[in-house]
């Protein structure tokens, strides 16, 4: 049971991390996502510039770029387009 101390310390650290999210907005903000969505759609419209579209999504996921709720909403909005490209289907899954 030598490793049980590490587990307890890890659990306390995780608890502190969750506590630090108390003041973070989980509500998505359309205004915050608008620029990222515009850039994403423009990249796909421009001869399916997939590297630029993915770079846009990664930029939005950077810490501090968007609230957690806005990041989740952006992923929900961009994932169907990326999944269509991956599967080769014209309709979202």
Walk me through the topology.
Layout: H1 4-19, H2 30-45, H3 50-61, H4 68-87
Helix pairs in contact: 2-3, 2-4
What does this structure look like?
The protein starts with a helix and ends in a 6-residue tail after the last helix. The protein contains 4 helices and no strands. With 93 residues, the protein is mainly alpha-helical. Helix 2 packs antiparallel against helix 3 (50-61) and helix 2 (30-45) runs parallel beside helix 4 (68-87). It has a domain at 29-93.
Highlighted features:
93 residues; globular
What helical percentage do the residues reach? Answer: 55-70%
Largest pleated sheet: none
Q: End-to-end distance, in Å?
A: 47 Å
* Series of H and E elements: HHHH
Count of DSSP H/I helices: 4
Provide a brief overview of the structure.
The protein is mainly α.
